[in-house]
Every structure is written in structure tokens, then in C-alpha cells.
Amino acid sequence: LVVTRYYRTILLGHAQANVVVDGILGAFLTDGIDISKLLMLSRDNPNVNKTVEKMINDAMKKVNAELLNVGTCNLHVIHNGFKAG
């Protein structure tokens, strides 16, 4: 069973990666979400994405966890994988 859930929107405008990461990690901390349970991030803007993903993954490594790496567009990879069976 695969479940995708909307968590929240954080409007940051044209923010740099460190601001995005601080927003994500801060929201998780505020809401009591264990970062080690995070599997993937889906987002837009590929240049910021790579840095955000690396920074989130670095934070996760501190708690002995990592993001699942299935390429640069994980949402499409997973969707097409389940679509094909």
C-alpha cells in the first residue's frame, strides 16, 4: 500500500535552499513529526531542489535515516512504476 499525503504549504517566495530547509525542518519540529520517517520530498524548481534534498538528507543522516533516492523526479518515477505494475 502506498499512501501520499499533503502535509502543508509554506510560502517562501524566491527563497534560497537554506531558507526552504529551515522552513521544512521547523514545521516538522513544531508539529512533532519525526524526520527519520520521511521517505521522499516532492517539489518544483530543480536547482533549489538538489540542494534542499541534500540538506534534508544530511539532517536525516544525523538520526540514522536517509531519503529514498530514485532519481531527480521521484514523483514521476514512483507514479510510472505503479502505473506499469
UniProtKB/TrEMBL annotation:
Protein name, as recorded: Uncharacterized protein
Origin species: Rotaria magnacalcarata
